[in-house]
Amino acid sequence: MERRDFLAGTLAASALAAAQGAGAQTQGNSSKQREYYQIRRYFMQSGSQTSLTEKYISEALIPALAGKGDPVGAFRLEIGPETPTFYVLIPVPSPAAAASLEIDLSQNETYLKAAEPFWSAPASSPAFVRVDSSLLIAFEGWPKITPPEKGKRIFQLRTYESPSYRDHIRKIEMFHSGEFDIFKNAGFHQVFYGDTVIGPRMPNLTYMLSFADQAELDAKWNVFRNDPAWKKLSADPKYAFEPIVSNITNLILSPLSASQV
Predict the structure, then answer these.
(1) What is the pLDDT of residues 139-193, one digit of tens each?
(2) What's the CATH architecture for 13-255?
């Protein structure tokens, strides 16, 4: 195995260091430039907020972002805390592009017209409770988003928190040392993998999987857990010396009608 060292400018980005890539059947060419992901969460109250915010995402935000990069994902939280919540997954080429996103949108007259009811909702009847966002950098071994085929789908969004940056680095290394392949062999559709650069509860990583339905999700996870390659990898002293994942957030999402993912 050849160890790869990733240069990093921040403590969060340094969690990409020491990932092992040799021998892993990763997504395409690992030398491809990694993209970034802005994940927005729109927290709402049941009722008019959901319809107003969904209309904004579908008729203003996604059309304004179309053609600027990879497909934009928009999802409804089905299973998880704080429902109703919409998640929007926006691929961007750089942190600067993420930082300037709202400024760029504010200069788009077509977007502003479509967004007006959402933007100008009065305090007595707001469009949402709160919005927050995180910025992630794609894993070196999975540098681009890979949308599933169109059709009835559910999505699993999983976030792994680690007790230290050392353990966080080891978990990312674990994906590059065979975990991608184990997911592939179990029949998973892997959508994206990202290391959180800016966001809450760091250090952590987030990835997304896609399934036809809950039955397929359960069946494929059973295949994964029983794969001899997974049992060998997870028992490797390099990763099993202590619990390198301290908390897992596991969400089930369904795509909004306008979602491009």
Answers:
(1) 999 999 999 988 889 999 999 999 999 999 999 999 999 999 999 999 999 999 9
(2) 2-Layer Sandwich (3.30)
DSSP string, the chain: --B-----SSTTGGGGTT-B-TT---SS-TTSPPPEEEEEEEE--TTHHHHHHHHHIIIIIHHHHTTSSSPPEEEEEEESSSSSEEEEEEEESSHHHHHTHHHHHHT-HHHHHHHHHHHT--TTS-S-SEEEEEEEEE-TTS-S--PPPSSS-EEEEEEEE-SSHHHHHHHHHHIIIIIHHHHHHTT-EEEEEEEEEESSSSSEEEEEEEESSHHHHHHHHHHHHH-HHHHHHHH-HHHHSS-S--EEEEEEEEE-TT---
Which pLDDT tens digit goes with each residue over 43-98? 999 999 999 999 999 999 999 998 777 899 999 999 999 999 999 999 999 999 99
Is residue 194 within 8 A of residue 37, CB to CB? The reply is yes
What the block records as the tokens of 230 is 């997974």
Going by DSSP bridges, is the β-strand pair 73-79/85-92 parallel, antiparallel, or unpaired? antiparallel
pTM above 0.85, yes or no: yes
